[in-house]
Amino acid sequence: MATAATPRVGIIGAGMSGLCMAMKLLDEGIDSFVIYEQADDVGGTWRDNTYPGLHCDVPSPYYSYSFLPNPEWSRMMPLGEEIQQYLRRVADERGIRRYIRFGTEVRSAEYRDGRWRVTTDDGDDEFDVLITATGFLRVPRYPDIPGRDTFAGPAFHSARWDHSVSLPDKRIGLIGTGSTGVQITAALGGKVKQLKVFQRTAQWVAPWPNMHYRPRRAMVSRFPALARPGYAFWSWFVTSVFGGAPIRPGLARSYFRQMCIWNLRLSVRDRALKKKLTPPDEPMCKRLVFSSGYYAAVQQSGVEVITDGIDHIEPRGVVTADGRLHEVDVLVFATGFDARAYVRPMQIIGADGRSLDEVWEDGPYAYRSVAVPGFPNLLMLMGPHSPIANQSLVPVAEDQADYALWWIEQMRHGRVGSFAPTEAATKLYNESIESALPQTIWSSGCNSWYLGKNGLPEVFPWNPLRHRELLRSPVVADFEVLNS
Ligand code: N01
Q1: In the predicted model, is pLDDT for residue 65 greater than 80?
Q2: What is the mean pLDDT of residues 453-468?
Q3: Residue 110, number of CB atoms within 10 A of its CB
Q4: Which residues, 6 or more positions from 146, have their beta carbon under 8 angstroms from its beta carbon?
Q5: Do the beta carbons of residue 309 and residue 427 sit within 8 Å?
Q6: Quick check: CB of 457 below 6 Å from ligand 1?
Q7: Per-residue pLDDT tens for 422-440?
Q8: Closest C-alpha residue for ligand 1 atom 44
Q9: Does residue 380 come out as left (phi exceeding 0), alpha (psi in the -120 to 50 range) or beta?
């Protein structure tokens, strides 16, 4: 139960990270919190994305909270709907729903007189600590293609899938070949009347068979401890191999490189198609795509990969630069997200009246991905430069939530009234990030959503384990701390 000194905590977002924060608070006996959720269900990205073929390309044993294994995974790579079911179950079983204000969008939050005043359409509320858990790929990015709105048929973003549209009898135009476009193509190729894939830049695709998990499912249901070795193995594999390969040359990088090259060579016979599908950049420069069905799908009859640039969209379909009209019945934009939106368009206003928009004018930055100078008692989950590249975000959220909890505990025990990272410590941290980034493969010359305004990737340039180390022991000297 909360004591008189227990801070009130406002959490924005009931996705994977917001739920994690709630569980950490409840485990410490802190129930003085409110979660704001603009939608009517938990789940965040796994609630919003429902496109055909949706799954997570991180092995399922490692895509669950370390303290709550999920015996229900049916495959090596979890299906989107299974992740959503898992998160729903977590919210139910841990009694989190009663703390959530569903259908309540936070318009703004302002730090005034030592507290955060949160404004929603339902009114204002005040908190000692504000935690943003809004994810980072949340705001759909629609392509800036002339005539986009003139298309006569159904047209929607991959993250806003219109399930009222029946697909098998349709000609579908799919714009975008990132992780999402590849998953949609693998699911629909050969199963719809026509699939026209508009590819601006080819992607390297690593094969990864998605095996079924039924035997394990039965066993883990009976003996949850059996999930631990799987979690430990995949934790090691994902952080060391996926985590190490992009940041330095070596065995892991060569392994993925060769895997992608041979996957294309062996899977695609037609030379013209192979040429079309050969990316101009190094494997892993863009976020690596994993799929064992993509190359087979693009070779199905009725599937065409179109590499001529898109000139415009008209009511009947897509017109490419060569003047050809590609007639389609449905248009899908798998064109990604505004990865720099973070909490925005919400207005967050700090102690000196400056908004996060103003402070982040040249690009989002943070102290160790979790805090921003001038914004006392604000903590971010999945903030700028979090280790998000081909990683499981669940342990990242856990580390960041533990860090937030540490500060909340200091407040609860009266040791701290307010805290915010200093400008100097934040500058030093971001300078070290900037000097490490050019050595990563993400900076090797490609266009990707990792890249920020200055052309440098906005990801964590070291092994994800270092992120854990950075958060494990808070450096109080890096903060301006006021006692209550
Ligand atoms: O988006 P993207 P995504 N005209 O930005 C193209 C996560 N995720 O939704 O490469 C034509 O990667 C663009 O072309 P180009 C994961 O972190 C995870 O696919 O810029 N094309 C590109 O092909 C992933 O990285 C899972 O030249 C245009 C595509 O659209 C992130 O989400 C599954 C265009 C956008 O690719 C984003 O993936 C799915 C235009 N005007 C997603 N504008 C997991 O399994 C853009 N494009 C965990």
Answers
A1: yes
A2: 92
A3: 18
A4: 311, 312, 313
A5: no
A6: no
A7: 999 999 999 999 999 999 9
A8: 56
A9: beta
Tell whether ligand 1 has an atom less than 6 A from the beta carbon of residue 400. Answer: no
Does residue 345 have a cis peptide bond before it, meaning omega lies within 30 degrees of 0?
A: yes
CA of 387 from ligand 1 middle (Å) equals 18
| Ligand 1 site, residue 192, Cβ cutoff 6 A | no
25 Cβ inside 6 Å of ligand 1: no
| pLDDT score recorded for residue 484 | 65
What is the Å distance from ligand 1's center to 341 Cα? 16
- Closest ligand 1 atom to residue 159 Cα is 9
| Span from the CA of 203 to the centroid of ligand 1 (angstroms) | 10
Could you tell me the CA-to-CA distances from 458 to 388, 391, 393, 415, 448 in Å, in that order?
10, 15, 16, 34, 10
For residues 135-164, average pLDDT:
97
* Global confidence as pTM: 0.95
Output the CA 256–ligand 1 centroid distance in Å: 20
The CA 186 to ligand 1 mean position distance, Å, reads 15
What value, to the nearest 5°, has the Cα angle with vertex 121 and ends 116 and 124? 30
